[in-house]
Amino acid sequence: MSRARAGDRGGRERLVVIGGDAAGMSAASQARRLRGPDELEIVAFERGHFASFSACGIPYWVGGDVAGRDGLIARTPEEHRARDIDLRMRTEVTEIDVAAGRVRARDVDSGAESWTSYDKLVIATGARPIRPDMPGADAPGVHGVQTLDDGEALLGSLARARGSRAVVVGAGYIGVEMAEALIKRGYEVTVVNRGKEPMSTLDPDMGRLVHRAMTGLGITMVDDAEVTKVLTGDDGRVRAVATEDAEHPADVVVLGIGVHPETTLARAAGLPIGPHGGLLTDRAMRVRGHENIWAGGDCVEVLDLVSGLYRYVPLGTHANKHGQVIGTNAGGGYATFPGVVGTAVSKVCDLEIARTGLREKDARRVGLRYEAVTVESTSRAGYYPGASPMTVKMLAEHRTGRLLGVQIVGREGAAKRVDIAAVALTAGMTVEQMTSLDLGYAPPFSPVWDPVLVAARKATAKVRATAT
Amino acid sequence: MSRARAGDRGGRERLVVIGGDAAGMSAASQARRLRGPDELEIVAFERGHFASFSACGIPYWVGGDVAGRDGLIARTPEEHRARDIDLRMRTEVTEIDVAAGRVRARDVDSGAESWTSYDKLVIATGARPIRPDMPGADAPGVHGVQTLDDGEALLGSLARARGSRAVVVGAGYIGVEMAEALIKRGYEVTVVNRGKEPMSTLDPDMGRLVHRAMTGLGITMVDDAEVTKVLTGDDGRVRAVATEDAEHPADVVVLGIGVHPETTLARAAGLPIGPHGGLLTDRAMRVRGHENIWAGGDCVEVLDLVSGLYRYVPLGTHANKHGQVIGTNAGGGYATFPGVVGTAVSKVCDLEIARTGLREKDARRVGLRYEAVTVESTSRAGYYPGASPMTVKMLAEHRTGRLLGVQIVGREGAAKRVDIAAVALTAGMTVEQMTSLDLGYAPPFSPVWDPVLVAARKATAKVRATAT
After folding, report:
1. Are strands A102-107 and A252-255 parallel, antiparallel or unpaired?
2. Same-domain check for residues B211 and B358
3. Structural domain harbouring A376
4. Number of C-alpha atoms within 13 angstroms, CB side, residue A445?
5. pLDDT, tens only, A251-277
6. Which of the listed residues A199, A416, B118, B225 has the most CB atoms within 10 Å of its CB?
7. What CA–CA distance (Å, rounded) separates A285 from B23?
8. Contact across the interface for B345 and A320, Cβ inside 8 Å
9. How far is CA A86 from the centre of its chain?
């Protein structure tokens, strides 16, 4: 069928991309690298105002670390078009007709609709922010931070705000990064968190360290609380956030409660959706059961190499890798995305936060018995100026000693140390094998035993002691 | 035989340790953790004034980053003795009698000698600095920097120096770190280097970047030059360093031309010595062919896991690991040191330098055909403040794509990134496998493609392109 269509266009195949952000445009660019415009036509649809931007950079733009919006744009629509990618902005795909191999798209401004046929299709529809279903959630002054439009709206709101009290709803990555951004702008910041500790991607004992640091920065932490209502003033703008038993005054509210995979189109088209609501693909990022459809980025589920289960991990770094793999395959080459180990790093002011692999509850959930250890060490040799404390938690499988996960909280040099564990997890190393890793050592960079090695030694001892 | 001797001491075994620095005292401490003083007597001999100190910290002490000598002492002799380790300072072992299982030791101050029998022996005699065989090499004002005594002597010399011109002989790790230290003390620094580029542990193209940075710091680099003579003034103190065709005025001279394994005793005792002059051990750090003798630290050769050859790599981080393994085995447990991949990190002012695995010439030497790529990236997302350039060179085996080595030169965040490659080398990963590593990403810590991933992608493309 795809050949017949390509034949209609004089032998030239058409690749259609839905979604013009990291995954979609990486796929388009990589396919273009492998196939020239005489062999492959590439059409990409983006419903928003921007393509190829760094959503991860929005907190730093809002916080003033990054001067302007344009810094976050990796490549403009014009740059894509100059490389023979027919990127159609403000054009929303409203239907995928798998049987006929075509998509229907609507010009957002004019409302005009038309069908475009494809030989190969890439679905990169991204994520949809979770919007709490409560009164006032859409009031002026309440903001998500997923798109550059969101960022501009928030900056406008901050400029217009009556006072300088901000409430951040959610204490995950986006929540803590936005708390930092608002502190930097001089706001009094309150973070309302469903859990007892921020950063539920960490175990609670490690989250506690983040909690303490945030409180130390003057952030008011409201724990174990659910926002029930956004209260508005006479002008209709937000004035406070209500939880079950309190009201928190707010001149601006930022929602950082995560995202869902945006798979409305895919669902309607009958494509396979996993338990977390994301598209299911094979290792080549091909939508299962569909030879000529690929999907990647925030709209797919990924294999967790440590647990063996599929997870939803919406991160720009994965989206870029997916795009690269899809573009290679759609361009006639061969590449795979084997899965993730669950690495993530963040910071709140100078506190660095990192995790990879399984938390205690993840291990329990998949039936893995584990030993957990926590060590305190320093970022540099203890005698070297600037040495700062670092807490490393490590999980190893009971008896086998296989590394299961690492969490690190500390100051300078803490976050990227998690990469050591990320590679070790990928390689399936045991904590005992890790004790002899030949890591870089010099006093300005590490104690003679790197903190990760200190944790590995302690985990090894515990695995040995409990192995009987 | 060992039992007979232990029998003579009422069933208590005796562990004798030669050398009271990192490897020796780590071994003693770990053996003590496993066996109490009623089971195992531990006697350690150290000929110097200090035990368990960080030689790697000396440049930072001389440079003023570390306030005093005592900061570099990890554990004092008193602390060791409080843990029932009979550490005898200023006592030099002058002979190992393997047949009789005893060592002869001499009190350095009194000259008194006596024999001590052992059931188990640990040789941790460390390294001997290479002293150039030339006139004036022993003149006042010429200094090595291996021991705390050396550091004190150098600091004394700096205090007494007539002017502020320093010549550093050698441009390896010690040379560049001492150049930084002397710059920090306000010296005019000249580095005399045998090679064309500093840091011969890097390929010359990467060494060139270090050269440029050192010149930029105001350091005078004399390349391709051999010191022929140290010239002294009327007072007998150094006044200049002569190379074949020039004289370089010097109020103080620091020798940073490396070290040799100190194996005089071991050689005399007939123990096995390798091609690099170091003791040869098995994976348990046992001296080959000797059931009750272990050796570790700067006096042994280690297996290079990438080349498959034995190398001499005198580094504190290995010495500590060796000590840990030796102490575990000597204490009746089981541990091994599998080998090294050749990781090393250093810095000269804010330039960070890192390497792991094989250089081009190492690969050629062992018959490995390779593809080499070099990429320029940044330490953080390009738009994030403080993002600084980073150069990553990567070697992969021809056809198989197995990672062979990585070298990194950059500013903040460059050095410890080499750990990613160190773990990947240990695991035997290919560069293509590395392209999907789940490394920590957030704008303050990395571009969306970590510089190491950018290099892995380029190396993968080159391996594919040349595989036919």
Report:
1. unpaired
2. no
3. 344-466
4. 28
5. 999 999 889 999 999 999 999 999 999
6. A199
7. 50
8. no
9. 27
* Residues A374, A408 share a domain: yes
Q: H-helix or E-strand containing A80?
A: helix A77-82
Tell me, rounded to whole angstroms, the distance of Cα A400 from its chain centroid: 31
Answer whether B347 sits within 8 Å of A444, measured CB to CB.
Answer: yes
B3-7 long-range contacts (CB < 8 A, ≥24 apart) are B5/B101, B5/B117, B5/B118, B5/B119, B6/B119
Q: Which two tokens stand for residue B459?
A: 């190396």
CA-based torsion, B417, B419, B424, B428: positive or negative: positive
Cβ pair B165, B192 in contact under 8 A: no
Contacts of A427 in chain B (CB under 8 A): 423-424, 426-427, 429
* HEC assignment per residue over A122-187: EECCCEEECCCCCCCCCCCCEECCCCHHHHHHHHHHHHHCCCCEEEEECCCHHHHHHHHHHHHCCC
Handedness of CA A155, B441, A305, A31 (dihedral sign): positive
B316 to A441: CB separation less than 8 angstroms, yes or no: yes
Question: CA of B135, closest CA in chain A: separation in Å?
Answer: 33
Residue B1 has pLDDT above 60, yes or no: no
Of A203, A222, A257, which one is at a domain's C-terminal end? A257
E strand intervals along B205-291: 220-222, 227-232, 238-243, 246-249, 252-255, 259-261
Contacts of A56 in chain B (CB under 8 A): 381, 441-443, 448
Q: How confident is the model at residue A6 (pLDDT cuts 50, 70, 90)?
A: low
| Residues β-bridged to residue B396 | B371, B403
DSSP alpha helix (H) spans, A223-315: 264-268
CATH number of the domain where residue A190 is located: 3.50.50.60
Looking at the complex, report in whole angstroms how far the Cα of residue A325 sits from the nearest Cα belonging to chain B. Answer: 10
Query: Does one domain contain both A164 and A232?
Result: yes
Q: pLDDT grade, residue B14 (50/70/90)?
A: very high
Tracing tokens 């490393």 back to the chain, one arrives at A392
Our count of domains for chain B comes to 3
Measured distance CA(A448)–CA(A453) in Å, rounded = 10
Count other C-beta atoms under 10 Å from residue B97's C-beta: 13
Same domain, A243 and A220: yes
Between the two ends of chain A, the Cα-to-Cα distance in Å is 61
Domain shared by A253 and A147, yes or no? yes
A356 in Cβ contact with A406 (< 8 Å):
yes
The verdict on B280 and B375 lying in the same domain is no
Q: Is B291 among the domain residues? A: yes
Tell me: do A294 and A385 sit in the same domain: no
- Please write the tens of the pLDDT for every residue from B345-359: 999 999 999 999 999
The mean per-residue pLDDT over the stretch B115-140 comes to 94
Chain mean position to CA A201: 12
Residue predicted with more confidence, B43 or A55: B43
Which member of B2, B5, B12, B56 is catalytic? B56
DSSP per-residue letters across A11-57: T-EEEEEE--SHHHHHHHHHHHHHS-TTTEEEEEEE-SS-SSB-GGG
Is A56 catalytic? The answer is yes
